[in-house]
Amino acid sequence: MLRYIVKRIVQMIPILFMISIISFIIIQLPPGSYLNTLIAQMRATGDEVDMEMIEALRIRYSLDKPMHIQYFNWMKGIITRGDFGFSFEWNRPVSHLIWERLGLSVAVSVSAMLFSWIIAFPIAIYSAVRKHTLGDYFFTFVGFLGLSTPNFMLALILMFISSKYFGFTVGGLFSPEYMMAPWSWARFVDMLTHIWIPMIVVGTAGTAGLIRVLRNNLLDELGKPYVVAARSKGISTVRLVFKYPVRLALIPFISTVGWQLPNMVSGEAVTATVLSLPTAGPLMLAALRSQDMYLAGSFLLLLALLTMIGTLISDLLLVLVDPRIRYE
Amino acid sequence: MNPKNILEVRDLVVKFKLSEGIVHAVNGVSYDVPEGKSIGIVGESGCGKTVSSYALNRLLPPYATLSGQILFRQQDGNIIDIAKLKPEGREIRAIRGRDIAMIFQEPMTSLSPVHTICNQISEALILFQGMTKKQARNRTIELLKLVGIPQAERRVDEYPFQFSGGMRQRAMIAMALARNPRVLIADEPTTALDVTLQAQVLSLIQDLQNRFNLSMILITHALGVVAHMVETVNIMYLGRIVETGPTMEIFEEPLHPYTQGLLQSIPKLTGRLGERVSSIPGSVPSAYDIPKGCPFEARCKHRMEICREEMPKPVTVGSEHTVYCHLYTGREAARDAANA
Ligand SMILES: Nc1ncnc2c1ncn2[C@@H]1O[C@H](COP(=O)(O)OP(=O)(O)OP(=O)(O)O)[C@@H](O)[C@H]1O
Ligand code: SF4
Ligand SMILES: [Mg+2]
Q: What is the domain-level CATH number for residue A115?
């Protein structure tokens, strides 16, 4: 098992390198660079465009060097110093900007994922075991309702409800007094009181789909001969369903968990914008738009890393659940 | 209930309500299982053998409807009608866990692929015999040895996919035996196995039946297979029993045209090479709409006017040999006619 994990991690390294090259190239693809954005901004605000200053910036950020040198320097910084480069737009090192936001994104995504599981699991199991009953139809209906409600709409509704009836400050992940504060227990608790709205909003989007997939997997399993054979041993229905079919129905589902994680991180961009969450999505979007290349590149790189970690986690879970893979 | 019997099935009817219509899988089956004896149920594929045996343990899906009586004599002498029990209630589960065990038709798919053999066999031991995990494991190893699995101590922790087909069926047999059942239902225990294994598994079953004095229902589509293993044979066709009697009598003097056809289709070792095995022409009609007269009418070469109209009544010939066929309503005379 340990060998397998180490092997998988070693395999990740060359892939990460390839991804870093590709993302670097993609970021450079649009003509111009951040300096063009800067010039446009200065013009728009009516400032004098100081070409000398622009030139100085170009040299300072090595934008005058060929692309492969820029890439090489960036990589060197990451590997030797954990330095992800400099954000032109924010005028701060990328690493100062990115970690907290990514962390909050992961927090929102993971809690949304757990939320959708906690909702979806019992419903899916109920619907499958009590197929074609009133309860099953009811949940199917509610599920489709959830599936067809756009995220931002739900976000707006929840914001409306919570500010109108509960008087909460809505939007963001922190109350104003904690917004800029360093991490502390109080700040963490404050986050918990805010995180539930994005958790529900991001979570419900996937829940309906999850219920359908799980219910169908489970129905497939429930009809199989090993279930009848297990029933014939005299075990109670609840015990039986959880021990046998649920476990097998999880297998196809676990393999999707891996790419769900980064999907959620990038997918919450719209919700995050509506709810003004200080997460990675909006920042990444802005960075891509203004060609803030090191910031955007670092995001892409870390998302790729997240994807790989997610896949690794789901593969490890699969090995735990399905012995057939273990012995291959 | 006859004191000799452990199980009496009376007028068992099973229907499946599907959106395409009603499947009449079992249409009034009655038979007895004497305590400590074995009986056979024989018929072509689709005639309702599996469905009627699932009914004995109430293993049918929720959309199946069941009627008739399944009288079972419990250990303490009480008689219980299994057909009246709550589908997944405690009583039927206790019967499954302690009294009536089943060996399934498909050993390849009847074991959970993600649990070890030990886990699956010891489950019933822990649940119904109050064993600890360790005791159950030891007992499981014993059982695996009993059914002839080599290196049982090691293989007990393996998964079904590491077992060959024959070994899986042996494991299934061990799983059934683990419950110390009084009735064993073996549903075509060898159809999924190749010929050399078939004989081994059958003799294992027979051996165990003798050793533990089990009452057994052996289900098969090949009459030849059960000949030496059971004392009574029930011939089933389209959800009905068409002939029943002591095995020897059925073999020597089959009365029902369907039974005669089945017997002729057994390949004989004494037959000349290349001799064509005769099989019954036509195929089993659909179970969606069953004929109101004799179920075999469409394929029978002796059919008469009345056969289409009227369900034949049972005719008992000898003490225990009964046939459902209009040919015999006039008894002896007609019987000679059929044999002519
Ligand atoms: N779960 C089910 N739902 C609907 N119809 C079913 C179901 N199970 C069995 N049937 C139908 O009931 C009839 C009897 O089936 P059964 O499985 O008892 O046959 P069998 O005699 O065991 O055949 P085989 O030798 O192939 O195992 C068939 O027509 C079959 O299609
Ligand atoms: S009742 Fe008629 S159709 Fe049926 S088996 Fe006898 S002779 Fe044939
Ligand atoms: Mg069958």
A: 1.10.3720.10
For chain A, how many structural domains are there in total? 1
Chain B nearest C-alpha distance from A159 (Å): 45
Is A232 close to B101, i.e. CB distance below 8 A? yes
The complex scores an ipTM of 0.87
The single-letter code of the amino acid at B244 is T
Specify the number of domains making up chain B: 1
> pLDDT at residue A258 above 80?
no
- Domain contains A28: no
* Contact predicate B143/B178, CB 8 Å: yes
pTM for this prediction: 0.81
Name the residue of B50, B238, B284 whose CB sits within 8 Å of the most ligand 1 atoms, as the mutation to test its pocket. Answer: B50
φ, ψ of residue A308 in degrees (nearest 5): -70, -40
B326 lines ligand 2 (CB under 6 A): yes
The answer to whether residue B323 sits within a structural domain is no
User: CA–CA distance from A148 to each of A201, A206, A253 (Å)?
Assistant: 13, 11, 22
Q: What integer is the mean pLDDT of A230-241?
A: 90
Mean pLDDT of chain A: 83
Query: Which residue has its alpha carbon closest to ligand 2 atom 6?
Result: B325
Contact yes or no for B104 and A228 at CB 8 A: yes
For residues B305-312, give the mean pLDDT.
Answer: 91
B109–A248 CB contact, under 8 Å: no
CB environment B157-176: b (16+ within 10 A), e (fewer):
ebbbeebeebbbbbbbbbbb
- Structural domain of residue A268, as residue ranges? 108-321
Is A144 within the bounds of a domain? yes
Nearest to B96 among A225, A234, A237 (CB): A234
The average confidence (pLDDT) of chain B is 89
Structural domain contains residue B300: no
> How large is the average pLDDT for residues A282-296?
84
Residues of A in contact with B95 (CB under 8 A): 234
Nearest CA to ligand 1 atom 24: B45
Find, in chain B, the residue whose alpha carbon is nearest to that of A223.
Answer: B61
Q: Is the pLDDT of residue A168 over 70?
A: no
Predicted local confidence at residue A170, as pLDDT: 63
Q: A50-64, B209-223, B273-287 — which is least confidently predicted?
A: B273-287
Strand-pair partners of B184: B101, B216
**B168 within a domain of the structure (yes/no):** no
Residue A80 has pLDDT above 70, yes or no: yes
Examine residue A183 and state whether it is found in any structural domain, yes or no. yes
Q: Which residues pair with A250 in a beta bridge?
A: none
**How many angstroms from the chain centroid is the CA of residue B315?**
23
Backbone angles phi, psi at B320, to 5 degrees: -130, 5
Question: Is residue A136, in this structure, part of any structural domain at all?
Answer: yes
Can you give the pLDDT at residue B236? 95
**Enclosing domain of residue B231:** 1-112+180-269+276-285
The count of residues in chain A is 328
Q: Taking a C-beta distance cutoff of 8 angstroms, is the pair B328, B245 a contact? A: no
Which residue minimizes the CA distance to atom 31 of ligand 1?
Answer: B46
B128 has a chain A CB within 8 A of its CB: yes
pLDDT band (50, 70, 90) for residue B245? very high
Pocket of ligand 1 (CB under 6 A): B 16, 18, 23, 25, 43, 45-51, 61, 105, 188, 221, 287
CATH number at residue B46: 3.40.50.300
Name the pLDDT band for B271 (thresholds 50, 70, 90).
very low
